[in-house]
Input
Amino acid sequence: MDEKIQLHLIIQRWLGEAEAMQEQIRVGAAQRITTDEGQSFLNEADLFAAYGYFPLRAVEKISLSAFVENIDRLVDEFSVDFHIWSKIHPDQIIQGYYSCHL
Output
């Protein structure tokens, strides 16, 4: 425990803003980490809510990470759900989940 859980994504061909800001994009990223018993350690609706536009090239590689610490009982598995989307083009989304077995 007390290890970093990381997700690295390579994203290509997302579209930027129309008109003058064609090479710019606004993205959102949600992440939820729960145990196999349903205990939630992280539930963030939008990790990029405080950010404005990014250059398109900057979002070609997105990493989401979190530390899970201070566990007070035995845990066999964590489930990490993620959702990354363009705030400009709602049809551009990536979502999924993965499990970490201890």
Notes: The chain has a mean pLDDT of 86. The chain has one domain: 3-13+24-101. The chain has no helices and eight strands.
